[in-house]
Amino acid sequence: MLNRNTHAFLLATMLLATAESASANPFPEADVTKGKAYHEELCVACHTRRFGGEEGGNVYLRENRRAKNPEGLRQMLSACTSALNLDLFPEDEAHIAGYLNQRFYRFGLK
Predict the structure, then answer these.
(1) Global pTM?
(2) Buried b (16+ CB within 10 A) or exposed e, 22-31
């Protein structure tokens, strides 16, 4: 049977581990170099035309942006690629998401 201090220590350790994993990079599988290339090829012209900014970045930096967390970013990216009939594999979308997160969103990054 665990004493109170041991129990508290284990609980604190588990909470810390959970917090660290929740704040970790949500796109660890992404190749941001590939993501940047896909973004430049497939996204920039449309986003710049519609939203303005360097690299079409105003869409990502606007106050009322739709992607407010990593899952929202994945969903918006998937919706965009579907609407434009882009022939991307899920891993290609993950590369773009990783690049966008590193460049604009910073979810889980310091």
Answers:
(1) 0.75
(2) eeebbbeebb
54 DSSP 8-state letter: G
pLDDT in tens, 15-66: 554 444 455 899 999 999 999 999 999 998 888 888 877 777 778 888 888 8
Q: Are 59 and 65 in contact (CB under 8 A)?
A: yes
Alpha helix (H) ranges present in the chain? 4-22, 32-42, 44-51, 58-61, 70-83, 90-100
pLDDT digits (tens, 9 = 90+) for 1-14: 556 666 555 555 55
- Which pair of tokens denotes residue 50? 């519609």
Q: Are 4 and 17 in contact (CB under 8 A)?
A: no
- Provide the residue ranges of all domains of the chain, joining segments of one domain with +: 4-105
